[in-house]
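Thread amino acids onto this structure.
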């Protein structure tokens, strides 16, 4: 049988361990709540908003700034793990090429970051994808560019006019027929574009 002093010391040690565990759990919960709060605070930029200017490296290592001034721009946030993104990207690229008299700058920004550079290079080569693929950066556990656009899932799609204003924004899988049908008259003109829509699910992103 433990003596009284030993029993007291044992109880005191147990109490300290319990208090430490409670403090640790509380800290973890607070950190998680703060992270969730930061993510929920992000809101996708809506039409009429000024488009942020970002600079990222493409998969060759060249720095590119986007969107470009005085041009129409498509900014498309995606991931190699987003099936609907991969299906939609070539159809959107092809559809935009059919717009009469409109010179579109297209930027497909991968949230997979430079860690997946080789895989992204293989993707572009294997799919013969013509548009630039940019690699997102993470700083202090935040996406450097995606957060400025309010991106919380892939795909997230923006069209920016030559004045630098967002005229279209959407997150989640696209109905491509509806997407092209609802483009503004000033952009579409007399062009006719038919696309097959995709019913694949989008991907919710987590902060790195």
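Threaded sequence (208 positions):
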């Amino acid at each position: 049988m433990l003596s009284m002093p030993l029993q007291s010391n044992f109880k005191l040690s147990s109490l300290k361990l319990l208090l430490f565990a409670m403090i640790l759990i509380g800290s973890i919960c607070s950190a998680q709540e703060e992270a969730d709060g930061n993510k929920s605070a992000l809101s996708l930029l809506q039409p009429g908003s000024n488009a942020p200017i970002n600079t990222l490296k493409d998969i060759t290592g060249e720095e590119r700034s986007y969107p470009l001034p005085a041009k129409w721009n498509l900014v498309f946030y995606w991931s190699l793990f987003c099936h609907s993104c991969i299906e939609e990207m070539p159809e959107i690229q092809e559809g935009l090429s059919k717009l009469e008299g409109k010179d579109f700058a297209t930027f497909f920004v991968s949230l997979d970051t430079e860690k997946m550079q080789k895989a992204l290079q293989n993707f572009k080569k294997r799919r013969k994808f013509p548009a630039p693929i940019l690699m997102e950066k993470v700083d202090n556990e935040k996406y450097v560019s995606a957060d400025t656009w309010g991106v919380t899932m892939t795909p997230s799609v923006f069209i920016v006019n030559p004045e630098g204003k967002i005229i279209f924004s959407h997150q989640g899988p696209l109905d491509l027929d509806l997407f092209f049908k609802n483009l503004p008259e000033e952009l579409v003109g007399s062009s006719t574009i038919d696309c097959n829509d995709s019913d694949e699910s989008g991907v919710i992103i987590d902060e790195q």
